[in-house]
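Support request from a user on the community tier.

User writes: "When I paste my structure tokens into the form, the page sometimes reloads and wipes my input. The last time it worked, I copied everything first. Here is what I submitted, just in case something in the input itself triggers the reload:"
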């Protein structure tokens, strides 16, 4: 029979008390560490929440400044959103406001500096910048910006750049390709068909590619 089984209740209690005395610091330390981790986690979550709220308020301030026609203030607010999820949206809004105010060069500069890890936003920024470059007579730069794209809107914009540069045949092919990628019910299809006609092409009457 094991020795522990021969000890009476008093001896067992003494063993437990002695063990607690020897390990009390470790137990208290472990408990304190656990509480600290829980408290630290809550603090971090609260900080992240406050940060997100502050970023959202800065973006709202950017929109308010644009609505009030204060482009300089909007520009400063947009700059404060750098490296945040709102940076690309703020840049797009600011560029539109600058363009509406007749400041095409400033709008181009804003979009040049913009970027996004989101593929959709990144493509939209490139498209808008390319269109402004085309209007500014910088079609070749617009073509470089659109290299390697494959969505309908970007292909259409590439066609616009080539048409502006007098590359009518290449523009026609771009418009045809863009049309094949569009659904037959797409609202932008009518304008694209008109561009194709201007480039010497003829819209197809069949459906689009799947």
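"...and here is what came back when it finally went through:"
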């Amino acid at each position: 029979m094991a020795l522990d089984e021969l000890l009476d209740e008093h001896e067992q209690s003494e063993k437990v008390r002695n063990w607690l005395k020897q390990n009390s610091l470790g137990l208290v330390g472990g408990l304190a560490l656990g509480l600290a981790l829980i408290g630290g986690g809550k603090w971090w979550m609260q900080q992240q929440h406050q940060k997100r709220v502050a970023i959202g308020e800065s973006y709202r301030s950017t929109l308010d400044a644009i609505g009030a026609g204060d482009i300089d203030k909007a520009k400063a607010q947009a700059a404060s959103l750098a490296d945040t999820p709102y940076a690309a949206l703020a840049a797009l809004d600011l560029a539109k406001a600058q363009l509406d105010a007749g400041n095409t060069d400033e709008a181009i500069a804003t979009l040049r500096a913009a970027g996004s890890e989101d593929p959709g936003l990144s493509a939209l920024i490139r498209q808008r910048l390319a269109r402004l470059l085309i209007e500014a007579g910088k079609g070749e730069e617009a073509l470089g910006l659109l290299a390697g794209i494959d969505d309908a809107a970007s292909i259409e914009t590439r066609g616009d750049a080539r048409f502006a540069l007098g590359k009518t045949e290449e523009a026609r092919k771009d418009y045809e390709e863009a049309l094949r990628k569009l659904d037959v019910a797409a609202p932008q299809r009518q304008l694209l068909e008109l561009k194709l006609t201007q480039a010497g092409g003829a819209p197809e009457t069949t459906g689009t590619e799947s």
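Agent notes: The reload is a front-end session timeout and is unrelated to the input. The mean pLDDT is 82. DSSP finds ten helices and no strands in the chain. Escalated to web team.
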